[in-house]
């Protein structure tokens, strides 16, 4: 079969693209997706944040090789395998990140990608449901001007917003610690304490994933089709000139048959930050050193493919409560700046770390066997460093969850400098990404930053009035990690327990080729005429907050870019 556009992956981004392109009845669109329609799956619909689908067939489980700093510990990478992709299995928390982080995309060379332009697509996609007075009484706040109300994606607050005193005590404690409540952490300034909205439909009490938001309204269109299969590689036209031209891709059906599907116009990869690099490499687009080892003939030399994989470094401590709290999920988030976590050491740290950026860039380049040059990485690091120390973006998130009898106090750092990679491990294992996280590998500063955010988390639970609720620190326990723990004690705890937040971006970064980029500002793969990549993989630099929200906005903007070129 041949369609105008063929899309790999009916996930968070893939279904946005499918919906927007097929809104023109003259355009035919096919999406090839490994997973199934799970819109009626109770594990998907639940909004209890229980991750009930975790060990079921609708998840991909990708193991990683370990990082030197983690000893023999391996990390597991999870992602959704379903119509809706990871939006169907995730935590639903919707936090966009800071204005300056989006403006940095333009500073990195992506003309037209800045906060103002992306913000308009946030609004376009959103159907914000204002909280009820009961939800407001329990801590839900919002600024109407930061939200859209006519888009397809429902966004609201859960009815399980805690009706206990937790919210007020947390808010008052953060105020004591210098982090005031803010009205809307999605306004482009996330600094402070707030209640986060989630992708759910509050009246219906169900999850809102991209299948429900973007596929259901388009389902009846005769020009849109979802096909079950797993995309293996792009097929190339016999075109003159040096620019590669795709004419479709090959996918494997559930029964193992290899099928070719044609694309008259374009191929769009939305198969996730883990899988797009594998499809590109399987098609001859990537680093010649890697491709020659795999025995794959080079079509486009693009060493950035699969590099620059960035996640948040996450860890949790648990606290026992004096008495159980009402309410289920508590979507309260506190986002601090470098100044909040490093205090009066911030200025000297800014100077000392700035002097080390070239050294860190060299270390990261060596880890990638020179795939991206030290000078390119250093340029990217300088922009990241400026965001942290000059533009005062938030550098971490503290995110407590009420488990009924205790508090799971999760925290993470938002912009680590140790980036990892994801590649095809062997020619035919297109379902098995080879992931190298590189946690803490390019610089000790990533560990220092996580310890500083951890110290702030610990301090908050020991500060009244929040401390009034707390009976004890159960894990790791004050004997292992006292309130005045040394750097060594923090290092041992963090290296032994840190996890990947599953907020992976950057493995097909939108950047100029000379900076290690994979797609240009039109989301077209460098060196190709008609292969686009649209999903978390093109986000070039990690954001504060969570990754689902930016994926929706990026996909909305990319859809407009693609439609503008439709003739
Ligand atoms: C457990 C968990 C909790 C999370 N919680 C949150 C949260 O609370 N808030 C937040 O903002 N973010 C959260 N995230 C991250 C966020 O959900 C993702 O960053 C985002 O959804 C990724 O969207 P995507 O379009 O890039 O990829 P996906 O949504 O993963 O879509 C990729 C799709 O491609 C399909 N696919 C893969 N390979 C192939 C192939 N070769 N051929 C065909 N189809 C293929 C997959 O099955 C999938 O459907 C969480 C992630 C996880 C794993």
Summarize this structure briefly.
The chain has 16 helices and 24 strands. Strands 1, 2, 10, 11, 12, 13 and 24 form a 7-stranded mixed β-sheet that branches. Strands 16, 18, 19, 22 and 23 form a 5-stranded antiparallel β-sheet that branches. Strands 3-4 form a two-stranded antiparallel ribbon. Strand 12 and strand 13 form a beta hairpin.
List the helices and strands and how they pair.
Blueprint lengths: L1 E7 L3 H11 L6 E5 L8 H4 L13 E5 L12 E5 L18 H9 L7 H11 E3 L4 H5 L15 E3 L10 H11 L15 E4 L4 E2 L4 E2 L2 H6 L8 E5 L1 E7 L9 E7 L5 E12 L6 H7 L2 E2 L1 H7 L5 E2 L11 E9 L10 E4 L2 H5 L3 H9 L2 H11 L6 H16 L6 E7 L3 E8 L7 E4 L8 E4 L8 H17 L8 E6 L11 H11 L1 E2 L30 E3 L14 H17 L3
Parallel strand pairs: 1-2, 1-13, 2-10, 5-6, 13-24, 14-15
Antiparallel strand pairs: 3-4, 7-17, 8-9, 11-12, 12-13, 16-19, 16-22, 16-23, 18-19, 20-21
The structure holds flavin-adenine dinucleotide.
Task: Describe what this molecule looks like in 3D.
With 567 residues, the protein is α/β, with parallel strands linked by helices. Helices cover 28% and strands 21% of the residues. It has 16 helices and 24 strands. Strands 1, 2, 10, 11, 12, 13 and 24 form a seven-stranded mixed β-sheet that branches. Strands 16, 18, 19, 22 and 23 form a five-stranded antiparallel β-sheet that branches. The protein has a two-stranded antiparallel ribbon with strand order 3-4. Helix 1 (12-22) runs parallel beside helix 16 (548-564), helix 4 (115-125) crosses helix 16 (548-564) and helix 14 (445-461) packs across helix 15 (487-497). The model has no long low-confidence stretch (mean pLDDT 95). The site of flavin-adenine dinucleotide (FAD) has 41 residues, from helix 1, strand 2, strand 4, strand 11 and helix 16.
């Amino acid at each position: 079969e041949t369609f105008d556009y063929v899309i790999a992956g009916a996930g968070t981004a893939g279904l946005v693209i499918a919906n927007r392109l097929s809104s023109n009845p003259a355009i035919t669109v096919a999406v090839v997706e490994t997973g199934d329609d799970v819109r009626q799956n109770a594990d998907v619909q639940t909004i209890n944040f229980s991750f009930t689908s975790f060990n079921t067939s609708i998840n991909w489980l990708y193991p990683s090789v370990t990082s030197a700093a983690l000893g023999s510990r391996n990390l597991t990478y999870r992602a959704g395998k379903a119509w809706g992709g990871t939006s169907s299995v995730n935590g639903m928390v919707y936090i966009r990140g800071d204005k300056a982080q989006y403006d940095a995309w333009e500073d990195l060379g992506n003309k037209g990608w800045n906060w103002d332009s992306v913000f308009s697509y946030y609004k376009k996609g959103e159907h914000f449901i204002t909280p009820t007075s009961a939800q407001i009484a329990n801590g839900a706040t919002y600024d109407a001007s930061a939200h859209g109300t006519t888009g397809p994606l429902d966004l609201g607050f859960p009815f399980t917003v805690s009706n206990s005193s937790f919210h007020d005590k947390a808010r008052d404690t953060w105020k004591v610690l210098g982090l005031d409540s803010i009205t809307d952490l999605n306004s482009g300034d996330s600094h402070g304490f707030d209640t986060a909205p989630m992708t759910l439909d509050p009246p219906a009490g169900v999850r809102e994933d991209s299948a429900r938001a973007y596929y259901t309204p388009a389902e009846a269109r005769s020009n849109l089709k979802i096909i079950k299969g797993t995309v293996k590689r792009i097929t190339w036209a016999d075109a003159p000139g040096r620019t590669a031209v795709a004419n479709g891709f090959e996918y494997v059906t559930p029964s193992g048959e290899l099928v070719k599907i044609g694309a008259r116009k374009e191929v769009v990869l939305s198969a996730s930050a883990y899988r797009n690099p594998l499809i590109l490499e399987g098609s001859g687009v990537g680093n010649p050193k890697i491709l020659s080892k795999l025995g794959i003939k080079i079509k486009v030399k693009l060493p950035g493919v699969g590099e620059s994989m960035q996640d948040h470094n996450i860890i949790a401590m648990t606290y026992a409560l004096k008495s159980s709290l009402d309410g289920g999920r508590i979507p309260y988030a506190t986002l601090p700046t470098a100044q909040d976590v490093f205090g009066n050491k911030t200025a000297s740290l800014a100077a000392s770390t700035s002097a080390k950026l070239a050294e860190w860039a060299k270390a990261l380049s060596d880890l990638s066997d020179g795939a991206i040059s030290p000078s390119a990485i250093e340029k990217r690091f300088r922009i990241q460093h400026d965001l942290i120390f000059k533009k005062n973006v938030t550098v971490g998130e503290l995110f407590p969850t009420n488990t009924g009898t205790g508090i799971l106090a999760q925290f993470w750092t938002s912009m680590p400098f140790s980036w990892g990679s994801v590649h095809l491990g062997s020619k035919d294992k297109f379902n098995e990404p080879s992931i190298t996280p590189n946690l803490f590998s390019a610089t000790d500063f990533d560990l220092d930053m996580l310890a500083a955010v951890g110290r702030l988390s610990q301090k908050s639970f020991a500060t009244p009035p929040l401390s009034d609720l707390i009976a004890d620190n159960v894990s790791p326990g004050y004997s292992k990690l006292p309130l005045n723990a040394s750097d060594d004690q923090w290092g041992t705890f963090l290296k032994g327990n840190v996890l990947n937040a599953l907020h992976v971006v950057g493995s097909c970064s939108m950047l100029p080729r000379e900076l290690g980029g994979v797609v240009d500002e039109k989301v077209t793969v460098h060196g190709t005429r008609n292969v686009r990549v649209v999903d978390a993989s093109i986000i070039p630099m990690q954001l504060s907050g969570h990754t689902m929200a930016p994926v929706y906005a990026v996909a909305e903007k990319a859809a407009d870019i693609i439609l503008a070129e439709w003739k």
